[in-house]
Amino acid sequence: MSRILLAPMEGLADPLMRDVLTRLGGYDWGICEFVRVTESVLPNRTFLRTCPELHHDSKTAAGTPMRVQLLGSDPHFMAANAKRVLFHRPAGIDINFGCPAPTVFRHRGGSALLGEPDLLHEIVSAVRSVVPTDVPLTAKMRLGIHDDSLAVACAQAIEAGGAEELIVHGRTKVDGYKPPARWHLIDKVRSAVRLPIVANGEVWTVEDYRHCRLASGCEDVMLGRGALADPLLARRIRGELAERVAADGSDWRSLLSSLARYWEGVRERVLPVHAGGRIKQWLMLLRRHYPEAEVLYQQLRPVKAAEDIDRLLVAAGLPPRAMPALAAVA
What we know:
Elements: E1 4-6, H1 15-24, E2 29-36, H2 44-50, E3 66-71, H3 75-86, E4 93-97, H4 102-106, H5 117-130, E5 137-142, H6 151-161, E6 165-169, H7 183-190, E7 197-200, H8 206-216, E8 220-223, H9 225-229, H10 233-237, H11 250-269, H12 272-286, H13 291-300, H14 306-315, H15 324-327
């Protein structure tokens, strides 16, 4: 069976969402949101805040290993921060060469480096020099900035630097998240290197997963937004559940406790004025597969007060006793 990995999604797969998704099962390992490295060695609290799994043997509550991801362009400080991370015994370290966010790109981070294969090599080499061989070192990249003309050169530079695995998102920086993901170009990269390649991008269904593996030639696949749109997707891929969302609503009902767990965590960690945006963001993705999520999203869309959202969620069937914040309104 190929491995199924959980992608590092800035602003989407935060520690709370990683906990919820990995409890539902199906993932071999995942990567935390990135830690931005500039010209300093960050304090321990920065790594622990971004990847609280480090407190628990670098695993989620469900036991899924989570690797720490570093993003930056200075080889010296990338290595120095990797060395600092090692104090916390991470499940692995990943280097971000794929983030397309405009702010990150302007500050020469993430996908901005895909025009400089030599610099990719310097960064990976510097990090590898301080990371012992018993700690996995991986990297994640896109096909390029504007096109895929340097994709192979970038992958070869990362390989030569000492990364032992490479995740390739089948889009360029300019593509952003617009479909399609060009899985066949991942195969072009895979064929040019010896290190294992993991395919990533636009896998929303079991059928997408099969097509992605076929077109990319990759055994292993990383799930991103598709994991949030159908939190049961990893288990569907593994054959543990039906390939499609059940029309009778049983899959949705099975997710209600996970929605409750997520909302409980949001209410504990996020100011009430901002809490609603988090659950609405997830529902926007869930409604791709679940008509019940569309109904609930439309009900919550105009509501701003967290207390009013509490009541609507209870009315929608979320178990209030799973959520201290909602027990009072049940």
